[in-house]
């Protein structure tokens, strides 16, 4: 089994910054893509940012230039640095990882979510 544990959420004023972390643990051969998604009340879950095993990145248009995704492969951890936060960034943020758990098994895992609230 693989667990993803997120941390770093909280309440911040508009214009402020937060850094989210997500650490994977368990039986891990390797981790391919990792990403951050978010879900605001009454809305569908959406991709915020993703990073491949080779560290190529892509971002939602709404966060480009403000958020930065990175990863530490030695720690099986992905980060999301969020700057210039806006009230519309308020959501539960979920970590996602595509994990190889054996030579023949690749599975997708989700974290439990961490709340980010941006006040105006």
Topology, pairings included?
Elements: E1 2-7, E2 10-13, E3 18-26, E4 30-39, E5 46-51, E6 57-59, E7 67-72, E8 77-82, E9 91-100, E10 106-110, E11 114-119
Parallel strand pairs: 2-11
Antiparallel strand pairs: 1-3, 3-8, 4-5, 4-9, 5-6, 7-8, 9-10, 9-11
Keywords:
120 residues; mainly beta; seven-stranded mixed sheet; four-stranded antiparallel sheet
Q: What is the assembly state of the chains in this entry?
A: single chain
As a percent range, the share of helical residues equals: under 10%
pLDDT below 50 for ≥5 consecutive residues: which ranges? none
The span between the termini is 40 Å
Largest sheet: 7 strands, mixed
Total helices: the number is 0
Overall mean confidence score, pLDDT: 96
Shape: elongated
Q: What Rg is obtained from the alpha carbons, in whole angstroms?
A: 14 Å
Total count of strands:
11
Structural class: mainly beta
Roughly what fraction of the amino acids lie in strands? over 45%
